[in-house]
Amino acid sequence: MNAQKLIDTAKALVAGYKGLLAMDESNTTCNKRFASFGIPQTEEARRAYREMIVTTPGLGKCISGAILCDETIRQNKKDGTPFIKAITDEGVIPGIKVDAGAKDMAGHPGERITEGLDGLGARLVEYSHMGVRFAKWRAVIAMGDGIPSRGCVEANAQALARYAALCQEAGLVPVVEPEVLMDGEHTLEQCREVTEEVLRTVFNHLYTQRVMLEGLILKPNMVLPGLTCPKQKTVDEVADATVTCLLRAVPAAVPGIAFLSGGQSGELASARLNAMNVRFKSRLPWGLTFSFARAIQQPSMEIWSGQDANIAAAQHALHHRAKCNVAARRGEYQVSVKSTDNTPLLS
Ligand code: 5MM
User: Fold this and answer.
1) Ligand 1 centre distance from Cα of residue 187 (Å)
2) What distance in Å separates the CA atoms of residue 250 and residue 194, rounded to the nearest whole number?
């Protein structure tokens, strides 16, 4: 293991005011999103969509690293240039999603365990030879009546730690993504408690598996009330709860924390990241940035809608959301964000 190389890559992923672009939707997820906009669910449509993304002018000024999936990393632009070369030439570090998805967990109704450890070492070596420098694995933790269970949290944390150790051995920086889902009626405080327990468990297992904290990136959820919780919270309240939780559970040796958006609107995700940087930046041991999929891509996918004529407009929308998140890292993002019932969410 080349520790310095891992540290340098991890630092580069959170350097300046850039963040990560998650464009690693599995074919099933991508097809589902395409279906909602009437886009054909074919390999060629997925390739064309990803070409639209990676050729967005100025992408490298906002995005430090892009997470691809196995299909995309093997695809090329129409002119034959491999996507991995296109993004590397733009100054964006290529990454790869390596989990095999979250599956129903035996004996744990309503809970899931992420699979993909078998043969992972060999797959990582192949990706590394292709020029990939970091990887990503997502664990999914649901909240509800009696869940998450200890068994589910422990099993997912152990899998994340084993994945992270394999990545570092292969010279790839692991992005460690334990996602506490937004679905449910739970309160902000309940989400904070569960997220803290999950993160503490994950870091215990990372320690047990001898993962070098300086050479990884954490990709957590923000601490939010459940989607159907009657008590929604202001942007500042979310920022405070999230940072409080992270300060208690994430060691200072970790170089960066890059949030997932988890189904928040692009505007809210940016506003909440902005508030964290405005209120806490000077007191934080790690960089706080973004690793969004939907909160960056959603408007551009709708505008593109599978039509070549819409590429420039779709790229403009993608670049706009990426720039908004760079502004949020600086603490300079400004937008009036309202909830669906028109209650102001900014305090
Ligand atoms: C939570 O999903 C990750 C971040 O995306 P959002 O910002 O939209 O929440 C994302 O990287 C996710 O892990 C990938 O899209 C892969 O998901 P699937 O379920 O398709 O493997």
Assistant:
1) 23
2) 14
